[in-house]
Fold each of these.
Amino acid sequence: MTNTFLIYGANGYTGELITRFAAERGLRPILAGRNEAKISELAGKYGFEYRIFSLDDTAKLDAALQEVDMVLHCAGPFSITSLPMVKACLRNKKHYTDITGEISVFETCAAMDKKAVEAGIMVMPGVGFDVVPSDCLARHLKDRLPSATHLSLAFYGMGRISHGTQATMTMNVGRGGAIRKDGQITPVPAAWKTREIDFGEGVTKTGVTIPWGDVSTAFHSTGIPNIEVFTVVPPSAVKMMKASRYLGWLLATGPVQKYLQSKIPPGGPSDAERKKGRTLMWGKVTDADGNSVESRQQGPEGYTLTALAALNIAEKILAGNFTPGYQTPAKAYGPDLILELEGVTRNNTTSLRPEQFLDKGL
């Protein structure tokens, strides 16, 4: 055991934040990426070692992995970059984690479960804001109502998003939405459904369905066959999402993508913005008899939560606390994993059976 890990894509907004938090926790990761100027500068700032290579340089990639126990992959878009890194981790028998939110990446990793078990490694994509808090909330709800057949999740992030997140969202514009229906991931139109969501603390917002990672992962964590995920976006964004149903083909073309990507501002939220930001989550499960329970969760701003969650899981893996194969955060570490992070709280609403609605006149 080398008792260290590789942060690939350390010079990106989230990768740099994770690097800073790692230094504050006394961890000693090796930083890596393609941009030598930025990676070397970041490594020098914290006194870390670094390696420079692209993911198609198999020799350098394998050599770097032989120096560590696990990878925290932070270089998106993960639909492009994840697979070569996962294959390298399987080849070198090193644990794989990343901060993706893309359904296709989760499903690709899930299909490698057998290979991961044979290699004795854990493959856990989504160790950041997507999907640690929502995955834990889903598992918590399932434990409250084991007979649940339907799961709805929603989140409201009060804060600015980074260049990398916007770039991935822009790349996927026009691809529509997704839900899980009867156990299968099912395409639906963009902004397929809206609903009013009470996040607690006097905050009620209109949520719209999005193809969030839990459409994939929550099924593995809970076994619930019907899953929808909502988020809160401005009304103008909802209109754009609905328009993409008809203009998606145009938005996906090279020239339009190049233009849209060029308009994305660099960087991400400042420290002050992150400190002021918060994330609110809501979830509800129901079963075939109409029984239901709801829970709410509050936590730090999304990028702060990503760094805290990713490093918490990295420390567990480095300490030998892992389960070989494809895993989700809540499946491997339980629904209270999220409560290990500073600033996260969760509360439940009263469970009501159908006949109790009549008794209470609700």
Note: The longest helix spans residues 235-251.
Amino acid sequence: MVHGWGGVQDALTLPFYGPFNRAGFAVMTFDYTGWGKSEGTPRNVINPWHRERDIESALEHLRAQPGIDARRIVLWGTSFGGGHVVKIAARHPELLGEVRAA
């Protein structure tokens, strides 16, 4: 799960964890470097290229987890994170998914 502009992992995406889990999905979320509970400085700076790097790192970490089928990963994003999801998914045709507007 990739959150938006100024979001952190336990804010706007929090209401979706339970429903996704109940639907049978494993859910992974993270804070961008320098945001929320993450380490790194400077703090609270929005850099889209750094965010894409963080998403790629999160994706790599997820693929390495036991019990996760790397062929069944779906990226999901809100707001600014939705734009990142589209761009990252374009680099990874092996990912599952579709784009839907709410």
Note: The helical segments are 14-22, 48-63, 80-91.
Amino acid sequence: MPWISFCISTYKRPELLKKQLSFISSQTFKDFEVVVSDNDPECSAETVVNKFDSRFKYNPNLTNLGMIESFNRSIKNSVGDYIIMITDDDFFSDTEKLNFFHEIFDKIPDQSIYINCLRKGKGNGEIQYCDKNNFVYELLNPYITAAFLWSDCILKSSIVKAIGGMPNYGSPHLADHAMLALCGRENGGVFINNESLKINSHDNNFSKRNLDTYYLGCKGFYELMHKQFSNIQLQKDVNVLDIHVKRWTFKSLLTLKGYYMKNKMKEDLKLLDKLSSSIFSLEFMKKHLNEYRKALILFYFKNLKKTLAFYLSK
């Protein structure tokens, strides 16, 4: 049984997948497997995966299961003690990454989650154990944990499988955050102040073409967290669920607006405005509308050249 299973879902992006698998194969720590769940019924990823050694395992889906269920299928088919959830386009380029995680594991063994992140007020590489009652609060609180990515942490496989993998409320957005929170709820976890991976932004990102999933993600995540965690876990000096969802929404909407304006995608901007209205019609988001309007004005001023170029274009 390998120590780590990389769980990947892919759909018709063989070149990106090939690059990702090449990065993974270059890891200096070799005790891993890679489970690729191919959402393309035409099996476009098969040739790519089969070019690598026997640790790389190809699992075709007979139909497009959707991103969440495809990821969950890769989890189900994995056999490693720990899991790394990773897309085909957020490249695992640090060749020492697995070795780094294993060194932390040797120091503090058998935790449910080890997460690289940006921690406020902590030294570079500083390690902190967090118990299960406080984990979700510290994870979602931007004043404590400023940034994290699901592909920059390892999760105990038995716990991931026990909670059913990634929750499916109709959107992949924030489902990764929910899964990390649910894993940490079992017996706590380890925070490592060592943010190293970045999201790879490109024209074929899933999120740029599936705007309806933002509404579903915002609503689904908020409702799931309220159902799974108590108010005591989510709210101390601040309500971390409220802050986390607000910040994610603001960042997502403004990032999309910048991208659409830069590329003069006027129809997409109209759809984005409809999406914004839908999100801020949600009961728990209504109170943030005025703050978002202020953030939008500030966005226009900070991006004045881009704004003028867009609105003066034909």
Note: Residues 27 and 94 are 8 Å apart (CA to CA).
Amino acid sequence: MINVNEDDIALLKQHDVGIAHNMSANIKSAKGVSPALTMFDEGMRIGLGTDGPMSGNTLSTIDEFNQVAKVHKLVNKDRAAMPPIKVIEMATMGAARALHMEDKIGSLEAGKLADIIVIDTKAPNMVPMYNPYSALVYSAYATNVKHAIVDGRVLMQERDILTVDEDSVREEALQFADKVRQTVIASGEEVR
């Protein structure tokens, strides 16, 4: 959804298409900037995504916040473009709408699946906090997440992952990275 025109946007809207806005991947690949703000303001189903470690080098939605807000200000040449509350809306209910699951996820309401993160607001990068939305968008890092609860189940507490053995996952990832590196080297391509 980077190189779309008004006709494309109208067609997407007509067919109620869900859209993932993957800013870090778009920045790294230098392909351009999606008119995500226009699509959001027109009530389209657009949410934040990360696009994975191979194209954006991140799986952290929190790391997308800052990029999305700032790049859209730059592209639109407007400091007021993409305010923090819109970024958070795009990351929560926007993502739920993009998946056509807004009746099940995206907000804390009775009857919905409750996925919650708790942010350490006393961390140096979070102080002072004048506005919680601005602090989340412009100051927060993924490492500020202290607790994570998914569908009522505590998965991380005090930054300790409770559901998997982190060391074995890290070792598997390193082994897989070696396979990828060898494949890339064998093909003559450069690892970026």
Note: The helical segments are 6-14, 23-29, 36-41, 61-76, 84-91, 93-98, 132-139, 166-187.
